[in-house]
Amino acid sequence: MPGQIKIDDGAGNYTILTNAGSLGSDKTITIPNETATLATTNASNLGGLVLLKTATASDDPTLTLDDFVDLSTYPSYYIVLTQILAASDNVELRFNFRTGGSSGSDLSGSYSQGGVYWHGDATGGAIFENSSTTDYSVYENGSGNNTEEAIVGDGHLYPATGTAASSNINVYNFKGHKQMYNDIVRTIQRTTFHESVTAITGIKFFFSVGNIVSGTIRVYGVKS
After folding, report:
1. Of 64, 104, 102, nearest in space to 198 by CA
2. What does pTM read for this prediction?
3. Using CA atoms, how far apart are residues 115 and 172, in angstroms rounded to an integer?
4. How many Å from the N-terminal Cα to the C-terminal Cα in the chain?
5. Domain segments of the chain: what residues?
6. 71 contacts: CB under 8 Å, gap ≥ 6
7. pLDDT tens readout for residues 68-101
8. How far apart are alpha carbons 135 and 26 in whole angstroms?
9. CA distance 221 to 95
């Protein structure tokens, strides 16, 4: 049946559009009285960021986000961690780069990193460098399992191409959370390198001991 579309600003000001087609019934769209840009959920480009993958923990041993790398469309990726909480106390949040697409596997070998950290509610901080681990890298260490110790952070992933002589580079910036071992707010920035040309297709997060109780990880493609 024909119907009307009513566009209302919520303050009594509205416009009615008459539709000759079949709406089933009249529809009302309420738009706040402010200036903004409206984008649909399937828009191809939301300010240069496109949500590609989401993983939400519910007492899981790992959070794996596979098969999101497409360098022909996205030269880099923005990864956001929201309230990642450990089941065990005083543990490391670790990650692996992944290869092989949807049936991916962990990228083994040496992960090198360096960075800097500082405290927001106490003195102390340091630069660290020339640090490496085998078959995984560290996102955060000394993580506790109290709710105020949940990890929040973000970073940019720059994958190797598979043929170019460049490294896999992973840069993360933390946004201050309490830590188990000293109960102070610490912010840390790390840069991780996997010095090979192996094409990576995903990333996996896990704690050194115990499960991931809760939290969400989102991966966005960054359009050039």
Report:
1. 104
2. 0.77
3. 10
4. 45
5. 1-34, 49-222
6. 159, 161
7. 999 999 989 999 999 999 999 999 999 999 999 9
8. 59
9. 19
